[in-house]
Amino acid sequence: MTGRFLRDIAVSPGFDPAIYPFHLPVVKGLIAAGRLDLGPGVTFLAGDNGSGKSTLIEAIAVAAGFNAEGGSRNFQFATKATESSLGDHLTVGRVAGRRERSNFFFRAESFYNVVTEIDNLGVGAGYGGRSLHERSHGESFLDLIDKRFHPHGLYLLDEPEAALSPRGLLIALARLHDLARAGSQMLIATHSPILLALPGAAILQIADDGRLRRVAYDEAEAVQVTRNFLNAPERTLRHLLAD
């Protein structure tokens, strides 16, 4: 059964469009569109640096009741408050009568703090039985999605590829595929052409003006840039490194 727990998101009125984060491209695009519908299974947010995709994922997590630094809804710690105010102005619509059995918000930049909190709470048994600090960043993330992510779950992920090798990305891709088939809903911000290849996933490309457009895999900017480089690296390097 395909999972769908979050129905849509929209920016509520009462903000100053001239200040951060409301001037970010994706936020401006969301405001102009009125709302963003979230489908079942996996939805990718793909866009260049500075487009605001990580800020949007964070805001959705906060508006949906997650800790801004990551973890499940039961995590209430705070190392340093750096989240934007967007979450306070975001409305998250839920599918009536549907509630996920498991949930987690992963963000690469603060995962170390989450792992420390897991150790402090003494709940490592649910994450493989030993501290995730005893493994590499990539290994700890793979253990997280293998041991802690369950069927019929809601998972928000911000740039999970940051810790993973190409082989690790393939392992993660297979696990995300299994979770989607088992009724989970996932919203993932990523630059990874490997993850974007997930069968059945929706890819929302953030344009320069912030508009969100669903694209096919071959149309995704990260895929095109990577493919062009791999097909002719010498040509790209000649252009980049020209005197």
TrEMBL record:
GO terms for cellular component: plasma membrane. The keyword Cell membrane applies. Gene3D superfamilies: P-loop containing nucleotide triphosphate hydrolases. Keywords: Cell membrane, Ion transport, Iron, Iron transport, Membrane, Transport. Its main location: membrane. One of its GO terms (biological process) is iron ion transport. It is a peripheral membrane protein. Residues 39-218 form the AAA+ ATPase domain. Pfam families: AAA_23. One of its GO terms (molecular function) is ATP hydrolysis activity. It is found in: Cell membrane. This is AAA+ ATPase domain-containing protein. It comes from Actinoplanes cyaneus. The lineage of its organism: Bacteria, Bacillati, Actinomycetota, Actinomycetes, Micromonosporales.
